[in-house]
Amino acid sequence: GVAVEASKMEKTVAKALRIIGIDHEVDRRTSVAAIAATAVTATAFAAYYYPEAFFGIRRGTLSSWAARALDRHATRRRKRRPVRVYMDGCFDLAHFGHANALRLAKACGDELVVGLVPDDEIRRCKGPPVLNEDERRAVVESFRWVDEIIFDVPYDINPEFMQTLWRKHRIDYIVHGDDPCLLPDGTDAYAAPKKEGRFMTIKRTEGVSTTDIVGRMLAASQQTRRGFLSPRKSGGSDKGGNESGEKLSHFCTTSRRVAQFSGGGGKPIPPGARVVYVHGAFDMFHAGHVHLLEAAKELGDYVLVGVHEDEAVRSRRGASHPILNQQERSLGAMACRHVDEVIMGVPEAVTRDLIATFNVAAVVAEEPCAPALADTPADPNRVPKEMGIFREVSNGTARGADLTTATIIQRVADDRAAYEERNARKGKAEENYYSLKRKGEVDRAEERGA
Questions:
Q1: Which residues, 6+ apart, have CB-to-CB distance to 80 below 8 Å?
Q2: Residue 265, by phi and psi: left (phi above 0), alpha (psi -120 to 50) or beta?
Q3: What does the alpha-carbon distance between residue 407 and residue 427 come to, in Å, rounded to a whole number?
Q4: Of 111, 129, 164, 167, which residue is least crowded by CB atoms under 10 Å?
Q5: Taking a C-beta distance cutoff of 8 angstroms, is the pair 387, 301 a contact?
């Protein structure tokens, strides 16, 4: 039976060769080789699709083994030569939107290099920054996804600087959000890397922007100046000059986002660890917060941050506070590399139950950013002071260490006209971006990273 089948296959091969114009007196050995090759190929396909009949293993085992082997090879290669991605920015009033952009950029490679645009370049291209370079640097360095920072970088990626990134800093790709970034002359700031095919786009974090936050601060300073300090019944801050309307964030905080920012859900407290509890509003996470958390880290092994609920901040500081709501402030704290875990929306007063639950060894409080109201409740740190575990820490002498939320708001208020003009200009640009995106005229970037 086998000989007959082989003879039939040989005749079939010879017939096929004649059809395509090859001499029918083809060498017998060539025919045998063709038959053998056909048999080997058929066997290989059969073994791949029905491995249980040939090797006694389940289907998919071989492909899984090959995938793991390729993954191990890729891991070894990337350890020898990690993929380095570059993302630049002003990071003025760095918020959770900036932090999420850095998280997404890091997911595009192995090492994230951040370019910090200097003050003069920001003034040339965007207008006056609220924070100086040292204050912006402190926050960017604190983000848990940043591996390296390059200073004094141009606002636009010109061909000369791009070559410096490729050769000196060994950058593989340049990353930016899917929102347009234009120079004063209207040209694309990232035209050069796009032309070279080494540009990657990430999804913009919608629902928050520096323009929006500056608007909230302008409203807060206006309310404070006019004496609108009574606590409100509901959360949020006003925007623009509308004292009666609520400013509600459009950003949706999901459990997945919290896990992404907290490194997978926060770090468990190691056995025997000295827990330091740091509580406060942490409104508009800034350099002063970074230095406070650095100092707190020196008091123990595990930093637990308690972010005050909106109503507590409002009752102590007035209707114009907080600038960012509870979820926004919590994400800002989660993004900091000095923080191990965050409790969202804690009461202002530190209780014995909280201290016992987390086995707290030391309590540190954020310095208040504004004079407390006359009807403010008693000292929220009374219990840890009675227990002898309350600690006052120094933020250090570095530039920006003494920065407070009130100071930032005052800077905006002092140069109100300039920031109102900038906000009007940026607001139109953002409206145009969202309009184009709704029409499908802006490429939609997929979110990378788990």
A1: none
A2: left
A3: 24
A4: 167
A5: no
Model pTM greater than 0.85?
no
Q: Give the C-alpha separation, 283 to 389, whole Å.
A: 25
109 token code pair: 């490679």
Instruction: Give 70's contacts (C-beta < 8 A, 6+ positions apart).
Output: none
Residue 35 tokens, joined: 């038959």
DSSP-derived secondary structure for 238-293: --TT-SSS---------HHHHHHHTTTT-PPPPTT--EEEEEE--TT--HHHHHHH
Distance, in Å, from the CA atom of 432 to the CA atom of 450, rounded to the nearest integer, reads 30
**Nearest-CA neighbor of 51 among 68, 65, 34, 69?**
65
DSSP state of 377: -
Nearest alpha carbon to residue 404 among 296, 291, 287: 287
Q: Which residue has the tokens 């970088």?
A: 153
Residues 6+ apart with CB under 8 A from 364: 276, 277, 278, 279, 292, 295, 296, 299, 390, 391, 392, 393
Q: Kindly give the confidence (pLDDT) of every residue in the chain, 450 residues in length, as a single tens digit, with 9 standing for 90 and above.
A: 656 666 766 677 666 656 655 554 545 566 667 777 787 787 776 766 676 676 666 666 667 777 778 877 777 776 778 999 999 999 999 999 999 999 999 999 999 999 999 999 998 888 888 999 999 999 999 999 999 999 999 988 889 999 999 999 999 999 998 877 766 677 778 888 988 999 999 988 877 788 888 888 888 877 665 544 444 433 343 333 343 333 444 556 777 777 778 776 678 899 999 999 999 999 999 999 999 999 999 999 999 999 999 999 988 888 888 999 999 999 999 999 999 999 999 999 999 999 999 999 999 999 765 555 555 667 999 999 999 999 998 877 777 888 999 899 999 989 888 888 776 766 666 566 556 656 665 555 444 444
The Cα angle at residue 353 between residues 350 and 358, in degrees rounded to 5: 90
| 104-121 as b/e: b if 16+ CB within 10 A | bbbbbbebbbbbbbbbeb
Q: Which of 290, 357, 389, 335 is nearest to 95 (CA)?
A: 335
CB hemisphere CA count around 134 (13 angstroms): 9
d(CA 387, CA 230): 33
Per the DSSP assignment, residues forming a β-bridge with 342 are: 305
Half-sphere exposure of 173 (CA within 13 A, CB side): 19
The vertex-293 CA angle with 292 and 294, nearest 5°, equals: 90
Task: Tell me the one-letter amino acid at 120.
Answer: D
